[in-house]
Write a structure and sequence with these properties.
mainly alpha, 3 helices
Length: about 70
């Protein structure tokens, strides 16, 4: 039978995995929304400010989308 500590560590690992999946989903949604705003004609500097990312990150997202 697993020890209490082993159970707690496994549960914490599961929570971390779940949080990482949620963060990845949120990141994809942010990228998609930022790209859609760019296509709609919003200035990249405004999008970067709203998304709290650098312009370099925004341009990297655009390059990935164009592949």
């Amino acid at each position: 039978m697993p020890s209490t500590w082993e159970k707690r560590v496994r549960a914490a690992r599961q929570q971390l995995d779940d949080a990482n999946r949620e963060a990845a989903q949120a990141r994809r949604e942010l990228h998609a929304t930022a790209n859609a705003a760019y296509k709609a004609g919003i200035r990249p500097t405004d999008i970067a400010e709203w998304a709290q990312v650098t312009l370099q990150a925004l341009h990297q997202w655009r390059r990935k989308e164009q592949k």
